[in-house]
Amino acid sequence: MVRVNADLIWKSPHFFNAVKERELDLRGNKIPVIENLGATEDQFDTLDLSDNEIVKLENLPYLNRLGTLIMNNNRITRINPNIGEFLPKLHTLILTNNRIVNLVEIDPLASIPKLQFLSLLDNNVTKKPNYRLYVIHRLKNLRVLDFKKVKSKERLEAKNLFASKEAIEEVQKAPVKTSPPVETRNVSEATEEQQTPKVVAPTPEQIIAIKAAIVNSQTLEEVARLEKALKSGQLPEDLKGLTDNMVLDNVAVKHGDKVHDGKGQGDDESNDTEEQRSTDSTPMEQE
After folding, report:
1. What is the 3-state secondary structure (H, E, C) of the chain?
2. pLDDT in tens, 57-72
3. pTM for this model (two decimals)
């Protein structure tokens, strides 16, 4: 936990940023409270206090020069109602990823006379019904909200929606929108399922191939694995290759048998023909 003081301020990075503004970088110091910023002597256009542990946006000195205040990734839940009195020229305020919940907590920003760019992304308040129209209605000079340009159509819609005090109060009391929980699969289970090989029932040829592989196995681990596959009646994918040669051999054997049968039949027919000729020629010799 670090306290803001003159020593921290002048030891922290300060430079001209991309838009040629003088910037003081106080981010990532675990600062819990805004204090002693008067030590800056109002010499900076941009102040970066992001990635700290600030809970309240308050206790700011009069900083006439400050135009951009970056407060993302803090724990801000409350804003000083009179913040605009101390930041008369502030035009950009970044409050992304804080803990602002209710719409009424945004109302103090209306006191900043020149605020034109505002980000409240990743705050629960953005889930409120009509959140965007409410902010546009309250901050009359706003040009960009949550990095989206404010359109004339939205201004008119906001004006009509919040024409009465009752409508404003109703929106302020509306609960935060909640999304139903989404079932997510355990990563380890999904990975295990992807890695588990699919199994198929073995054919008679595959069973014979497994038995032959058991006989030819070189290690006990291989024998145990093959016996397990045989007993379970399930053939893992990596064992399907065992049957490929066997199937080819069976095809070759069957094809060979057919060829052999054809030749035998031809020989028989040839022998019958020769016997017939021999019979026919016998009577002629007797004459």
Report:
1. CCCCCHHHHHHCCEEECCCCCEEEECCCCCCCCCCCHHHHCCCCCEEECCCCCCCEECCCCCCCCCCEEECCCCCCCEECCCHHHCCCCCCEEECCCCCCCCHHHHHHHHHCCCCCEEECCCCHHHHCCCHHHHHHHHCCCCCEECCEECCHHHHHHHHHHCCCHHHHHHHHHCCCCCCCCCCCCCHHHHHHHHHCCCEECCCHHHHHHHHHHHHHCCCHHHHHHHHHHHHHCCEEHHHHHHHHHHHHHHHHHHHHHHHHHHHHHHHHHHHHHHHHHHHHHHHHHHC
2. 999 999 999 999 999 9
3. 0.62
